[in-house]
Amino acid sequence: MDFAVATNYTAVNWSAAHAPWIVYHTELLIWYYTMVTLSVLGTVFCLLVLTGILSSRKLRFGSGALIANLLVSLLLQCALFVPLVTISTAGIPLGVNTLTHASRSFCRHSFVGYFILNKVVSMADMMIGINRFVAICFPHHYPRWTTRPALAVMIGIPWLLSLIFGFAIYFQVGGVFQASPPWGACAVTFASDASSWLSLLMGVLLPIGTLGLLFSIIFMRRS
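Structure (tokenized):
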């Protein structure tokens, strides 16, 4: 799921007296510790499944390599970037105004990884769906899709496209990562509709549309 949202940034009075975490302190504390708990559980789950795949020679190839790639992406999210993004909004549990110059810089540096991995996870999931589609509908062609070059392409494309897009925004080409009102949470402010639509395409429309189409074809062929 792609959580990076487009928002039009405007100057806001960020004084602590008007900060929403003062008004909704309890609710936001619950959110904060829920995110931390989910990050820990997600990290443990990814490590367990990834260890199982890597310990089996058979599972390390074919679709197993694609699943391992997805798990590595999720592991980085859960173990590193979700906690970083949560901490970058640390004024919520601590009652501190996070929108200082230092916190804005931290938001930019932490959110780039979160943004990139959101795209990688979405497209890696799509690649697994394509792999399964070929295995089910065109089994005689499937061995070609399990060769190392084919797997390298299916693993590399999500990373390459996501890294290019993410670092373009990191260097303020097409958008900027910053703390956004009213909560001070890290988000993306896109410089144009084109950048916003590209983010939506990579993170949502293309993966979900492709998987929906492929699963519909499988359903029709099997019914």
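The longest strand covers residues 175-180. The domain at 16-222 is CATH 1.20.1070.10 (Rhopdopsin 7-helix transmembrane proteins).
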